[in-house]
Amino acid sequence: MRVLRTVGKQLSKIHIVGAANGNAGHQAGCEEAAGVMRNSPILKASPLQIEWGQTVKPRPTGTSLAALPGVIEFSRRLAKATEVAVRQQRRLLVIGGDHSCAIGTWSGVASALRANGPLGLIWVDAHLDSHTPDSSDTGNIHGMPVAHLLGYGNTMLRHVGDPNAKILPQHLAFVGIRSFEPAEQELVESIGVRVFYMDEVRSRGINDVMQEALDIASSDTAGFGMSIDIDGFRIEDAPAVGTPVEGGIDACQFMEAVKRLDLSRLIATEIVEFLPQLDQNSKSERLVVDLIETIHARFQTVSTTQVAENQMLTG
Ligand SMILES: NC(=[NH2+])NCCC[C@H](N)C(=O)O
To answer: Which of 141, 159, 187, 301 suits a disulfide with 24, CB 3.0-4.6 Å?
Structure first.
């Protein structure tokens, strides 16, 4: 009885791991986001129960491809942190960081789940982030995490946590994509990954698309994750990002769609690419909090009315 109660408690509280990395991005600054969110008055005012775990900080070795040694070492430490959290059945949220942190986040989660089955993943983003070091024009590793999670690219990055591919093509769905280069598109399409480009989101509506993405990520998997790059949203909803792209997902519609999803098999969430130095009027900070509440309120005794009231108070 006691054990059950403890497990229940761990399941409902959000356990946040900070990923304070930023030098694999187009512009430095995402490394500040975890600290900003930790001190965020908007998040502190939220009725959600949160416990902050460790914040993993890299030892940067440079930018573009010179960042690689630092990213490898950082990814290994982040993967340890997420693996432990999932093994302890905590309700995990990772706050990045540039999107290269996804290598560490999902490698650790995949290792923890492996005995039970494969990991599914919904990747919300403007970009495909599916380059290898060889195919990338910029050398920025935040444009490469998906290729490495699928088992392509640099061997040491592919082998973070363990040598297995972290995700199989049939369990991955991209949502909101509208910026990519031919080589990365060719890679993901040739192996059959489902990409919901922005055109399809616009024509079918985000509700339908998210429902189908959830089906892909949860069929024949041990559970699934969501990696949310806030540049997937409209620039007016998430202005503080390093690589903005016009024509994104309407953030309010996205959150309405997420509220309708069955998230009972959600293992972990990651919110990345928030660049605090560009955040006028805390607009993007507020979006991060709204996303967290949208996803997590259902797992706690917090009612949607309480969340709405909080949003009005701080809005
Ligand atoms: N996580 C991101 N914001 N990625 C943007 C990647 C942009 C471009 N495709 C590149 O590889 O450099």
So the answer is: 141
